[in-house]
Write a structure and sequence with these properties.
alpha+beta; 11% strand; four-stranded antiparallel beta sheet; 2 domains
């Protein structure tokens, strides 16, 4: 623990920084020190068990997660911020579901800009200020840092949960050479005996409290996986086109305390409200690049992944009137064996639907 006695100037700077962060649009703010995570052993075990699937970058980032000081030579404090992305109204169409964080703009870009704005304000005030900003894609154990900075506890669904605001949050970190006073870590745990998230997961991806096996997770298969979706996962994906929110939707802390985002950028785009599955399946690669992908997290699935996911959702719909659109797509994308197999699976499933 950092035993350094912080001066009134350092405490004042931190207070001004928090006010600035809130004015930029961050909902939560906390500070922790630069020591390595205490959860590294369990993270290493998770990697060793192969639960990260084909996300090899998580292994490659391990040395940096073990020692955040490798990211900034004179690292002294880490500011952790969070944005709510909870747009409370459900999507108007019922054809498919998309994880709530992907309804609007890409949070990586948006929050990175907000963090840079925060850093610019600091730079104007502090000479010799050095920093780096990271939003999720960086080699940090963000949820651990957030809990250490007092923002909440890590729930059984592996999400950070704030006691008054729930878990619909995206995290960002500002690493700096400033000696900011750390906040008191959030050390209590408030999930109690509740297992709603574990019980609700349709693929049993939460193999134990706090342990997510990505190889069973709908989000992993619909976002991270580049090739075929495993046959035993296709039916379980249901109508999730991109990502999954089930373990957060059922969480009592969200049902009671979720607060709407103050950032309009996270509200749903028009196509999400109006487009049908056949319309989406007919999009060309250029259409996808122009109408769906710009500033959207959905671009991560890429065009092929998007079509693959559409096929699975349509196959699970039970709607035989989707057959013609799937047949058209199979002809249009003939030669792509991965896509062909998913169109065939969907058509076969619809042909046997009641």
């Amino acid at each position: 623990m950092n035993t350094h006695a912080h001066s009134s100037a350092e405490r004042s700077l931190k207070e001004r920084l928090q006010v600035k962060a809130e004015s930029i649009g961050f909902d939560l703010f906390g500070v922790t020190d630069a020591r390595p995570s205490e959860r590294l052993d369990s993270y290493r075990s998770w990697l060793k068990a192969g639960m990260h699937g084909q996300m090899n970058y998580l292994e490659q980032h391990l040395p940096l997660k073990e020692n955040p000081a490798l990211l900034l030579s004179d690292l002294r404090s880490i500011v952790v911020v969070a944005c709510s992305y909870y747009a409370p109204e459900p999507l108007q169409q019922s054809d498919f579901q998309v994880a709530r964080y992907a309804w609007g703009d890409d949070y990586h870009v948006l929050m990175k800009q907000m963090l840079e704005q925060l850093a610019t304000a600091l730079k104007a005030e502090v000479s010799g200020f050095e920093y780096r900003t990271f939003v999720d894609s960086g080699p940090l154990l963000e949820r651990d840092l957030a809990s250490r900075a007092g923002l909440g506890w890590i729930g059984k669904n592996t999400c950070l949960i704030h006691p008054q605001k729930g878990s619909w949050f995206l995290l960002g970190c500002l690493l700096s050479n400033l000696d900011l006073p750390p906040d008191k870590p959030f050390e209590s745990f408030h999930c109690g005996s509740c297992t709603r998230c574990l019980d609700a997961c349709p693929t049993e991806a939460l193999v134990a409290p706090h342990v997510l096996d990505a190889r069973k997770c709908i989000s992993y298969w619909t976002i991270e996986q580049r090739e075929a979706i495993a046959p035993d996962m296709q039916e379980a994906i249901g109508n999730w086109l991109f990502g999954c929110d089930i373990c957060q939707q059922v969480c009592p802390w969200n049902l009671r305390f979720a607060q709407p985002t103050q950032l309009e950028a996270f509200y749903p785009r028009e196509w999400l409200q109006k487009a049908t599955l056949p319309e989406l399946l007919r999009l060309s690669e250029k259409d996808f690049a122009l109408k769906i992908a710009p500033r959207s997290p959905i671009k991560r699935a890429k065009y092929r992944g998007f079509l693959r996911n559409l096929a699975v959702v349509m196959g699970n719909s039970g709607r035989q009137d989707y057959g013609p659109a799937l047949q058209e797509a199979r002809v249009r994308h003939a030669g792509d064996l991965m896509l062909e197999s998913h169109f065939d699976w969907a058509l076969q499933r619809l042909s046997t639907a009641d």
